[in-house]
Automatic annotation (TrEMBL):
The keyword Cell membrane is assigned to this record: no
Origin: domain of life: Eukaryota
Name assigned to this protein: Indole-3-acetic acid-amido synthetase GH3.17
Keywords on record: Ligase
Record's keyword annotation contains Ligase: yes
Organism: Gossypium darwinii (Darwin's cotton)
Length: 233
């Protein structure tokens, strides 16, 4: 048992802040606005609003510990007295090379847009993750895809041209900030790596070995640890 509260998340403000930062708005103004946005108080079940985004806050009955879960949800409706939410994204799971900070939802949308080039070849995307590669200058986004054919016992052969098209579509689908930084050569071209079957099982083993709960683990959309990336892919 636990007590649930909901911390309002202003998605429009976050997007405007990123664009304002890119346009040269003073860091002092951004700092002040961040503090204002950060002082929002959580609300209870009775005060949530339809269409609003929230981050879930949980208070346990044993010890009264308060946790920010990190999941951003959108209130989509009501069923009798129960709230109906749509999962949007995890907070703090963004790629960042420069001033860019695409969210998990941005990344999912971009990958889905590349689906029409992948599926006619019979490929199914099983799992994916990403990484902000900064070993070279400028840095770049790296996507890791685990693919398989819809038909069993068929050998996976990749067409380099199709993969390049997928990369282009993903980049075109990302936000205004990313496109500006790409044009200014502050971010290098996106890299797509197709990994062998079982790679993400190995990544899970890595995180479990570091103390993550196997019952609560889910593949991160953005890998922050270079140690988790390099030996596995």
């Amino acid at each position: 048992m636990a007590y649930f509260e909901f911390l309002p998340v202003d998605k429009d403000w976050e997007e405007k802040a990123r664009e304002s930062n890119l346009d040269g708005v003073s860091s002092q103004w951004l700092s002040e606005m961040t503090n204002v946005n950060g002082n929002v108080e959580p609300v209870d079940f009775a005060n949530v609003k339809l269409g609003q985004y929230y981050e879930v806050v949980v208070t346990t009955l044993t010890g009264l510990y308060r946790y920010r879960v990190g999941d951003v949800l959108k209130l989509t409706g009501f069923h009798n007295n129960s709230l109906q939410f749509q999962f949007v994204e995890r907070r703090n799971t963004v790629l960042s090379i420069d001033m860019d900070k695409p969210s998990e939802a941005d990344l999912l949308k971009a990958i889905r847009n590349a689906k029409r080039h992948r599926e006619p070849l019979g490929f199914v995307l099983m799992t994916f993750s990403s990484y902000a590669g900064t070993s070279s200058i400028p840095g770049r986004y790296v996507l890791f895809w685990e693919l398989k054919f819809k038909e069993r016992n068929r050998c996976l052969k990749l067409d380099a041209k199709i993969m390049e098209q997928c990369c282009s579509i993903v980049e075109e689908s990302l936000d205004f900030t990313y496109k500006c930084l790409r044009e200014a050569n502050k971010i290098a071209a996106l890299e797509l790596r197709v990994v062998k079957h079982g790679t993400f099982d190995a990544v899970m083993d890595f995180y479990v070995s570091k103390g993550a709960s196997i019952n609560q683990y889910k593949t991160p959309s953005c890998i922050q640890s270079e140690e988790a990336v390099m030996p596995k892919c």
